[in-house]
Amino acid sequence: MAFSDLFRKKTVQDILRQVEKNESDGHNSLGKHLTTRDLTAFGIAAIVGAGIFSTIGKASADGGPAVIFLFLFTALACGFAAFAYAEFASMVPVSGSAYTYSYVAFGEIIAWIIGWALIMEYAIGNITVAISWSDYFTGLLKSGGIDLPQWIQMDYLTASNGFKDATALMATGKPFDSLGEGLQNAYIAWKTAPVLGPLHFVADLPALFIIVLITYLVYRGMKESRNASNLMVVVKLCIILLVIAVGVFYVDTDNWDPFAPNGVAGVLKGVSAVFFAYIGFDAISTTAEECKNPQRDLPRGMMWAIIICTVLYVVIALVLTGMVNYSNLNVGDPLAYVFEKLDLKWMSGIIAVSAVVAMASVLLVFQMGQPRIWMSMSRDGLLPAKFSRVHPRFKTPSYATIVTGFVVAIPALFLNLTMVTDLCSIGTLFAFVLVCAGVLVLQNKKDIPRGKFRTPYINAKFIYPILLIAGITIAFTINNKATMDFLTNEKQVFGPADIVTSLNQEQAMAVHNVLIPQEQGNADLENALASHQQAGDYEIVVASLPIPDSLKYESGFSLFKHKIPMWIFLVVLLALLVWTYRRNLSLIPLLGLISCLYMMAELSVWNWIYFTIWLIIGLVIYFGYSRRHSRLGQIART
């Protein structure tokens, strides 16, 4: 097989002819039910979910009120990417999303890679949302007097890791009652779970329940899914507007000072959480074949969804950080927490109900998106033909929908929230980067049929170098220390929890003797270290501790490896400078590519490693099955 065959491309004309054939024979066609209003509702349904009800708290705790700038930056980045999606959706109105767009722009191997990455976005994204839904649902049951055992409402990894951390902290003098609620619950789940030999049976059964329910609804049909989504969107928008209307009367502007307590680094620390709050608008593009007028309605639906959600996010973030101090918001249910703290428990109950509805709607949209990606890949021969089977009565990709249910349900029983959130973010950002790059690749090709929507063209040949110089100037002036620490790989001090949980019993005793007077007895070691963080002498105190430097600081390659994603980003910036100058690239998709790649660089190196492993597995499948069964390959051989 020639190397060039890996990059064989589909033409827009062939794709459109195939869609017309499917519609004329009726065997593989999907029902057309969606309008701009429905698509906007699907977008809001997908975006407003776990992000606003859970991850917004962690981002606000890290960045303070200034987290609104991160919401605006992320909205801008998603807006740039949405322009690229909208142009492709108008050009190629089929149910393949970024997978089909990459097939046209880059060729088969890149299309396979992006299709495989989209499995990570939709499937793992739904695992994340199902876990969050389970947390809110069990909390709602508990407030109603139904307290489920911890071992059936928590995933295995969280229970196992939480038990180890709780045990380590209690060994250094931290009382069980002083542990965070999450660690307490993990410890109890692990200790009370049924045991079979060395195996503890811990599984998130409510997450399994909601996935089975949503999968059944998606299987039944697009019209039913649309109606359920629209109803859930109305409910959660009403609740969010109620939260804003009530919360604004409890805002204390003193809580907005300081506005950016942890500086730029603190704001950027929430990139993964905030970006996760925007994931979903791209799922609209998977419904292209079910739109009445996809070339007009898809672009409008995406843009309206992003605009509406951004306004809601910014207002909610300002209200939350105004109602309580930002440092108190690092909780799993920040909206319910702030009203409970202000003794407005009736509002907490309403928010819990709306969170359950909101996250169910996110599950619905993502659970629709995944089967349609698989259906498109199956039509091209890259997956078995069963995945493109359309139910004769319900007009949905039936087999792919059932498989998606299993792919989401089983891992949701065992994986933890943080791991899947970051993996979902990196898979989605990768898709955004390639879609933006695809628009740049096709921008000057004359033989491509264009849709009704095109991204406004602004020549970036001179604007991009000016922006790059401005960025370098800011880095070496306003943010000079952080920039120099990055370039020189300056060692970084570990946080209190990292230090305490890494100590053995002898080291813990030695640290205890330095930090805590004898008359206080066996006091909490983590709190003692954290108090010095607040006092501002943390680094001096850590330097004086009688333990090896490897337990105090991260340095050398162990520190540098976390900077590898950012170095990749910087190298790509220079490559884009050359490409832009030579090809007069369009500014909007270029900025979309850069901003999404930057957010990828802000994720940990472990996410890049796990993502790379996922892509390698995908390539093994491609070369083992898909390459030989590719429709384009079969046509070339005949």
From TrEMBL:
* Pfam families in the cross-refs: AA_permease_2, AA_permease_C
Sorted alphabetically, which InterPro entries does this protein's record hold? AA/rel_permease1 (IPR002293), CAT_C (IPR029485)
* Transmembrane segment boundaries: 39-60, 66-86, 199-219, 231-251, 263-281, 302-326, 346-366, 399-419, 425-442, 462-479, 564-580, 585-601, 607-625
Leader peptide range in chain numbering: none
Protein's UniProt keywords contain Transmembrane helix: yes
Topology within the bilayer: Multi-pass membrane protein
Cited SUPFAM superfamilies:
Multidrug efflux transporter AcrB transmembrane domain (SSF82866)
Where in or outside the cell is it found? Membrane
Q: Which UniProt keywords apply?
A: Membrane, Transmembrane, Transmembrane helix, Transport
Recorded protein name is: Amino acid permease
What organism does this protein naturally occur in? Flavobacterium magnum
Mind giving the lineage of the organism this protein is from?
A: Bacteria, Pseudomonadati, Bacteroidota, Flavobacteriia, Flavobacteriales
